[in-house]
Amino acid sequence: MKDAGLFIDGVRIALAGREIVSLTRHVAPGAVLTVMGPSGAGKSTLLAFIGGFLDPVFSASGRFFIDGQDISALPAEERHMGILFQDPLLFPHMSVGGNLLFALPAAIRGRTARKRQVEEALQGVDLEGMEARDPATLSGGQKARVALARVLAAHPRALLLDEPFSKLDAALRQQMRELVFAKARERGLPVLLVTHDEADAAAAGGDIVTIGGTE
Ligand code: ADP
Ligand code: ADP
């Protein structure tokens, strides 16, 4: 299906009149587009533009489509992008279950249905039964998995990942990569991955685009 997935159509981003990003790419459902490039190249800025939270110091044009729908003009909360950063950014004043409940779409109604979705989301990242835990008591790897479960519980239409593995040690990093890419394939989510790490790009297995190079 031609329109399935994420289509980045003629995106151009400039800072103080200088173009830093120019990109047209299609990311199929379950596939990963890896964005590499030196620090300051505009990788995070590209994610922010697609996510709908671009700082107004940038001028940007171009459009994004999800499954053929133009989402470029929608407010961030209506784009339904699942975003992960280097830091898991769990809400510290909420339990693990509270973090997930908060992220569930409002359309999922009823205490029982919502509780069940949280249970399933935690099962999906091998953290079943951890609802009551305080995020502060979790290991780094567990926090990363809660952050992933929270993003998936929100029923995103695509994943935008900004160095999501870079705080993890090598073993956890590999586990987490496999988990994220497996979930994306399972759910047919297109993924945009920003990373410095060649091994991340190799594990992603998709196209690689380098921005801010010498061209
Ligand atoms: P190319 O001609 O090199 O394939 P295109 O810019 O035509 O480059 O398209 C790149 C990819 O994006 C192709 O797989 C194409 O099918 C897909 N594509 C093109 N337009 C759209 C669209 N509006 N929505 C979703 N996918 C699209
Ligand atoms: P990357 O993620 O590739 O390291 P960024 O997207 O964070 O790069 O930044 C791209 C460029 O925009 C850099 O030159 C950075 O200094 C600049 N920049 C980022 N955020 C802002 C901002 N809020 N105001 C002004 N310049 C910014």
Automatic annotation (TrEMBL):
Ranges where the ABC transporter domain occurs: 1-215
The entry's keywords: ATP-binding, Nucleotide-binding, Transport
Single GO MF annotation: ATP hydrolysis activity
PANTHER family the record matches: SPERMIDINE/PUTRESCINE IMPORT ATP-BINDING PROTEIN POTA, SPERMIDINE_PUTRESCINE IMPORT ATP-BINDING PROTEIN POTA
Family from the record: Belongs to the ABC transporter superfamily.
Protein name from the UniProt record: ABC transporter
